[in-house]
């Protein structure tokens, strides 16, 4: 965990960032098995810091996102990843040992199925619970927040989440809908007004399910932490990224209102939506700060979903999506953190918008999927570090020769001045191992400055 110095509030954003990087980059408290692992950790943390600072590192960093590929490569199913921690650990170790990525990039495929079972989670389907045991999880959109509940959310987001959203999203927590506000505990005579509903059988049952799921989550945390700790000690791979948050528009649009509903809200009740987005900004900032600080990592991962070119016009992007995302980014940067934006889909019409003078140069990292990388270089070069965009389709259906040529072209055209990382366009679920090896090895040999 990162411990801010006593004068934290007096430090500039840049000084805070340097303090966070120094803490993440130090070897103290990180047991390494060999001097080679220590040297690797030091070299790789410096490499990614250099690109954030818009410098040329020793070579182009390698930053793919790994999904179910490691499970398939390791001979286990997507369901076993979520339920059999021993098999997960062996598959995860095998992938990292065989491919030697630059960083211990978290696997979105590894999630604790037992926790979701105990909560009777409704927002997703996962292997064996709605999807085949060999396929990854899928989101099931619905209006878990109704159109007439914006006022409740704006007035009390946490209360709405606990008593409105969670009882609908987690069937095992349905009793929480009966809980009164915690402000009922502010005076001695009022405390029974809170405790009596909490003692009702449906509420008690929900708390029991919540505690059981929390204990299962700790079991999962121990297993994943042990696996990652073993990889770090053996190979010296730094964890990246560390924290997590989302764009306010996606917080509301992904799992509260759903895509269809939030698009209707843009026309039917735009003022309510804008107020809710503004209200969500400090929540998004705090989520990123809290998770990154707990992991002692300066990076905050932000997947961008509904801001892609195909979802809304540029005018609507400027009105509904960008202002609250921009405020979130500035809030994170002010806390010394580096937003790590995973730009899903195409942002070919957004580049002029996101290069905003109010966001300091050298303070963010953007990894692109279907955006023209030469246009990205022209627009973002000298302002922000960026990465991308080896297509998953090529990794799955192409040849090693095609992958090698694509990687070399990227390095030749967009990596020449530094500030660039080689990345996949999306999370890798299915790929030919020889193609992934070609991507990694080309980067390591051809990407040297």
Give the spatial strand order of the biggest sheet: 6-7-8-9-10-11
Q: Termini distance?
A: 34 Å
Provide the β-strand percentage band.
5-15%
Q: What shape does the CA trace take?
A: globular
**Can you write the helix and strand succession as a string?**
HHHHHEHEEEHHHHEEHHHEHEHEHEHHEH
Query: Average pLDDT across residues?
Result: 95
Radius of gyration (CA) equals 22 Å
Low-pLDDT windows of residues: none
Let me know the largest β-sheet.
6 strands, parallel
Please sum up the structure shown.
This protein has helices at residues 13-25, 35-52, 69-73, 78-83, 85-99, 113-119, 150-155, 157-169, 191-198, 201-235, 248-255, 259-268, 270-294, 314-334, 351-354, 373-380, 392-397, 400-414, 433-446; strands at 104-105, 124-127, 130-131, 138-139, 239-240, 243-244, 299-304, 338-343, 365-368, 385-390, 420-424. It has 449 residues and is of the alpha/beta class.
Layout of secondary structure:
Layout: H1 13-25, H2 35-52, H3 69-73, H4 78-83, H5 85-99, E1 104-105, H6 113-119, E2 124-127, E3 130-131, E4 138-139, H7 150-155, H8 157-169, H9 191-198, H10 201-235, E5 239-240, E6 243-244, H11 248-255, H12 259-268, H13 270-294, E7 299-304, H14 314-334, E8 338-343, H15 351-354, E9 365-368, H16 373-380, E10 385-390, H17 392-397, H18 400-414, E11 420-424, H19 433-446
Parallel strand pairs: 1-5, 2-3, 6-7, 7-8, 8-9, 9-10, 10-11
Antiparallel strand pairs: 2-4
Helix pairs in contact: 2-10, 5-10, 6-10, 11-13, 12-13, 13-14, 18-19
